[in-house]
Amino acid sequence: MPNPNVVVIARKCGVSPSTVCRALNGKTDISAKTRAKVLDLTRKLGYVRNSAARSLRSSTRNVVACIMGDYHHELYQDKIFHLKRLVSERGLGWSIHLTTQESFGAVFNDVLGNAPAGIITQFEPSLDDIDIAGKNGVQLVGYDMFSSRMSCVSLDRIKGVEDAVRHLISSGRDRILLLGERTDSARGGAYKRALSGLGTPFRRELVVDMPFGRDLYSYGYDRISELPETVDFNAILAVNDACAIGAIRALREKNLQVPDKVAVIGFDNILV
Predict the structure, then answer these.
(1) What domains are there in the chain, each with its CATH number?
(2) pLDDT tens readout for residues 41-71
(3) In this predicted model, what pLDDT tens digit does every residue of 251-264 receive, in sequence order?
(4) DSSP 8-state class, residue 126
């Protein structure tokens, strides 16, 4: 098996990673029983200390690690750019780690084993991982997620939809096509409630769902291009800027001028 890190050893021994490090470094502020337990397990697991890794860990106390799902997706690139900028402005280093929900636990353990100053994560760690991070002074922040276990920063998508609907209707656009959501989603529900609150009837044919994939520009373009001529709308509320851009291209090919004939609102404020 791969060489385990101190977080894995700590979990198996029921101690903190710092206790494992003190045992490996021969510190005298832990009990002989605990030291023996740690050293015995490291031998059984074939743990080998790596001097290069130790040097790296000692230099990561001023590094913020970011764990994200898909760095190459256009929706994440702008977010990560601004996160990195804010971290750098505070004189801290930056590292990015890409993973999936299934592999997150292993990646989180590796990152935590390097003892960063903090971790920004798109995925929610387990209670054990949150506890270990806290005991080792590693700050955790969930990004674009909700959790009762840790501090989080997230977009208020519901209010965003409500504000967009109010703006469009106040501008005389009463046939708003929702592009990229289902009616049973959080944003779909906000769209329906906002229409109802403003006395505007909900039309099922004005809700156009689409998969969340890598090429959102093409999805937006295809969905609008494929719309029957009988679907009557004078505004599009797209759930992200990428599909809004694709939709604008399709509207132009249909000779529907933006914003004269159809107003378009996106959702991410990405650089175009």
Answers:
(1) 1-49 (1.10.260.40), 58-154 (3.40.50.2300), 157-265 (3.40.50.2300)
(2) 887 876 755 544 555 455 557 899 999 886 5
(3) 999 999 999 999 99
(4) P
**Residue numbers in the chain where pLDDT is lower than 50:** 1, 51-52, 56
DSSP state of 90: T
Tokens of 41: 């397990």
226 contacts: CB under 8 Å, gap ≥ 6 = none
Strands (DSSP E) contained in the chain are 63-68, 93-98, 118-121, 139-143, 151-153, 176-179, 207-208, 235-238, 263-265
| pTM, 2 dp | 0.66
Give the separation between CA 125 and CA 236, rounded to whole angstroms: 37
The Cα angle at residue 188 between residues 172 and 250, in degrees rounded to 5: 60
Q: In what order do the strands lie in the sheet with 151-153?
A: 93-98, 63-68, 118-121, 139-143, 151-153
